[in-house]
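Standup notes
- HV: blocked on the assembly model, inputs below
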Amino acid sequence: MRILAIETSCDETALAVLTERRGFLYLEKEAVYSQVNIHKKYGGVVPEVASRKHLETIMPLLEHTLGKNKLKNIDYIAFTQGPGLVTSLVLGVATAKALGLASGKALVPINHLEGHIYSNWLSHKKLQQNKTDIFPSVILVVSGGHTELILMSGHGQYKLIGQTLDDAVGEAFDKVAKLLGLTYPGGPIVSRLALMGNAHKYDFPRPMINSNNFDFSLSGLKTAILYFMEKKQKINQQDVADICAGFQLAVTEVLVKKTFLAAQKYQAKSIMLAGGVSANTFLKQALQNKATKLAIPFFAPELKLTGDNAAMIAAAAFYRLKNKRASIFTGEKIAKLEPRANWQLVAK
Amino acid sequence: MKEYKSKNQAETEKVAQELIARLQGGEVLALVGNLGAGKTVFVKGLAKALGIEENITSPTFVLMKIYQAQHERIKRLVHVDCYRLEKAEDLAEIGLADYLGDPANIVVIEWADRVLNLPKNTIHISIEYINNQERLLKLS
């Protein structure tokens, strides 16, 4: 089975060709064109700019990825149908539809979040071997648009056990960065500055840390930092570093605590981290430390797969197809496929 | 113009709920206020009054979220966030026009001060920070 995957949910145009060799996933080709430098100057993704850039990039990237064999050896075309920015999604969806209609190959729509989850399978041979008992797994999905705790009981089987009630973790990093006058994207810069700060200098709230559920709230933490800054007025470079460190610690403590409470309640056999914020070393290390202490296997995607990419979309499609859980579209049915900007992987 | 002094989040939600009772449907609510002022809290109040059980989360990342309402006149709450937008045309790009002017919809726009040319029937709501708990709400 050889899968071509297309991902254009936000500001990355990505393509990948994935196949299986001797029981392991094998990434034959992958290409990611990131627009982050273009959007930096706006302080966030500008939908119209992203959309135009996808349009410019996708065909050359496709030719580069497929080479002279074109679609000849491809069995399935997987694509991100949602969630994401509709103006970005539409380019990937339209490309997949055109390829499917022209070639007669089957399309497999994939949820972007499920893709992030499968970046773990791409990163760990141990998961691909399917020898260790990992299900049920508690998965913490953290990104710019999502903060969810998902219980995965098998391939393609998910249950939502908790989520943010307001802002997503990545969004909170971006907004705190903005409050501090730092650049976009906020995540990497806040965590880099945090290395130079004292996380215990200022005590920020840990919203909902003792609530009797697995939901999160990050809006109040952002607000607390705003008040703190207004009160303090003069903020020097060391203060900025201390605020970054204190903020990161507060977020991490809440995420770690709830993840492991969920693991305990659902008797998880493993814990996974997924989504763009899984690039945060501090969070990853905190989860790893606690997992080691409790002797529960912990998986996080390798750094290059933490951001948006098409390899993870191909991997998600691969396991759906292999486990006969894929929605497959061929022929006339393809024409009806549309982007699903608000597609929830699992409803609560 | 009407002013409300809200003592806490619950009161801010209540102002939003009372506003819903006065709406015909088809209105645009333009919300203005700083980071942390309580714009999303206000939208949560609107959602409650419209019988929306889903949790209202920040639409900053996807720019627009649509919720199905359980209300006699209003069928949809369209929640838009202009925080990341540069110019008004970006709103058209995400397909907002499809939802404007339909009496079955209420469109609420956070960071509306970043968008010009709002429709005539727009209700402007500003939320100002007084202290940790209290807010000044102005409706016009």
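- HV (later): unblocked. Chain A touches chain B at residues 42-48, 51, 83-87, 144-145, 163-168, 170-171, 175, 178-179, 219, 222-223, 226-227, 341-342 (CB under 8 Å). The beta strands of chain A are 2-7, 12-21, 24-34, 76-82, 106-111, 137-142, 147-154, 157-163, 270-274, 298-299.
- Next: hand off to the docking folks.
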